[in-house]
Amino acid sequence: MRDFILVYINGERRELKGDDVFLSLSDFLRERAGLSGTKVVCSEGDCGACTVLRASPQQSEFKFKSINSCITFMYLLDGCHLLTVEGLLENDRPSEIQYQMVENNGSQCGFCTPGFVMALAGLFEEKKKIGEQQIKNALTGNLCRCTGYAPIIDAGLSVRPKEVASLVKRYLTNECLADLLEIRKTPVAVELRGVTFFSPVSLKDAVDWKVKNKKAKIMGAGTDLGVLVNKNKWNPTQILGLNQIEELYTISDSQKAVKVGARVTLTDLENSLEEKIPELARLLKIFASPQIKNNATLVGNIANASPIGDTLPYLLAIGAQLEIQGPTEIRIIDINNFYTGYKKFDLAENEIITFIHLPKPAEKEIHKIYKVSKRKDLDICCINASFVMGLGSQQKIETIRVAFGGIAATPIRLENLESFLHGKTFDSATIDAAGVEILKGLSPLSDVRGTANYRKLLAKNLLRKFFAEVSSEREL
Q1: DSSP string for residues in 51-99
Q2: Contacts of 133 (CB under 8 A, 6+ apart)
Q3: Per DSSP, what are the bridge partners of residue 54?
Q4: Are 63 and 168 within 8 A, CB to CB?
Q5: Strands, DSSP E only, in 174-263?
Q6: Residues 280, 314: contact at Cβ < 8 Å?
Q7: DSSP string covering 351-396
Q8: Among 387, 412, 379, which residue's Cα sits nearest to residue 312?
């Protein structure tokens, strides 16, 4: 057991103890490390001013990827190498990306500029073909209120890839990697003024500690909980970190399902599902910004239990299975039976969600996911919906599963609609009748994202959109 965490920052090895362990990454960089190039504006992971790069030996590839430092805590970064905008300097001179931002007038007040630079640095670390769309995608988590985005995009397009020095080759030495891998073999326990953090290296130790500390909050990436801490709405006193448990970073593939560990990032999951479950991979492309997806997890989205969680309706529709580790047994539960009320679920205080099993689409099965929000990228939905359907001969609906989010206190299956559609012909007359059926039992709330009547209209129109898309694609 050790009472410190280890990180590398811009190539410098740092062992952190006491208060430093519980700081957000942005606060540590600015207040402790003197690296004030990292800015903080929203403290919610929305604006990208705080963007830094992180490399973790546990990810699918040991390379630098962008994350939001404002909603990331130091205790979850043990065994990682971090880069700030100061670390991009080459012999005290601006890097190629910084140079092009200046040359293309991509900065005005300058407050957002370090975040844009770091997001672009993460993009060019990928070493893929980079055009305007790739640059726009990489910058979806960054906001600028002065310059407008055209000069910033021009700066990205002007970057000469051959002039971009590899950050991996510069910072991730064999010695550094060996040090980070070795340190992660030892669990961490830090206690300070009534607040306890424990990071085990095995699932058994994690469950054993949870049994003794039933009120402890389990932290994977904490991208949503970080917002609550920053807004003074949550102050945990017992924290169980999962970032050192190697098996939770795995994605395994069987004939019928994909098994995803609780610490697999959404970025790694998206890349893995491109061919296996393409509709979910498509949703993940607009799930959030790269900074969020490079840190957040699918199991975190499930455990957060938001009624408007982007992935949850689809997981209900496909009947995803949760693997839950308790002190004496492993439970497998259908996610349709998991949610019991608003932010409530079938999970004992001494249990941990460790894996989720995602069924692959059956042959000729039709999968569609829809998200309605004011923005395409990085926005909270008003309503999201998923349809999974199997068609038989003469366009008869043999199987149909429909789930919605943003309608009730939890994401829900529309079982009355499923029963109505089952066995009917998939045609406009059926959908017209189903449009009436879908409204039965729906009692959505009104809030800033839409009124109850608006949500009812959306639900009806999404059903029609599903019919229109499938009909067009299959020339029905």
Answers
A1: EEEEE-TTSSS-S-EEEESTT-BGGG-TTEEEE-GGGG-BTTB--HHHH
A2: none
A3: 65, 82
A4: yes
A5: 188-192, 195-199, 217-219, 238-241, 251-253, 257-261
A6: yes
A7: -EEEEEEEEPPPTT-EEEEEEE-SSSSS---SEEEEEEEEE-GGGB
A8: 412
DSSP code of residue 1: -
DSSP string for 393-415:
GGGBEEEEEEEEESSSSS-EE-H
Tell me if the domain spanning 381-474 has CATH number 3.40.50.150: no
Cα separation, 418 vs 416, in Å, equals 5
Second-level CATH architecture of 250-359: 2-Layer Sandwich (3.30)
Per-residue pLDDT of the chain (476 residues; tens, 9 = 90+): 999 999 999 999 999 999 999 999 999 999 999 999 999 999 999 999 999 999 997 765 789 999 999 999 999 999 999 999 999 999 899 999 999 999 999 999 999 999 999 999 999 998 778 999 999 999 999 999 898 899 999 999 999 999 999 999 999 999 999 999 999 999 999 999 999 999 999 999 999 999 999 999 999 898 988 888 888 777 889 999 999 999 999 999 999 999 999 999 999 999 999 999 999 999 999 889 999 999 999 999 999 999 989 999 999 999 999 999 999 999 999 999 999 999 999 999 999 999 999 999 999 899 999 999 988 888 888 999 999 999 999 999 999 999 999 999 999 999 999 999 999 999 999 999 999 999 887 889 888 888 999 999 999 999 999 999 999 998 76
Q: CA nearest 48: which of 377, 453, 272, 461?
A: 377
Q: State the helix-helix crossing angle for 428-437 and 452-474, rounded to 10 degrees.
A: 160
Instruction: Give the C-alpha separation, 243 to 245, whole Å.
Output: 6
Topology (CATH) of 91-164: DNA polymerase; domain 1 (1.10.150)
- Domain 5-86+169-241, second-level architecture: Roll (3.10)
- Encoded tokens for 12: 């410098």
What are the residue ranges spanned by the domains of the chain?
Answer: 5-86+169-241, 91-164, 250-359, 381-474
* Claim: this prediction has a pTM higher than 0.85: yes
Nearest to 54 by CA among 369, 374, 293, 249: 293
Tokens 């805590």, residue? 73
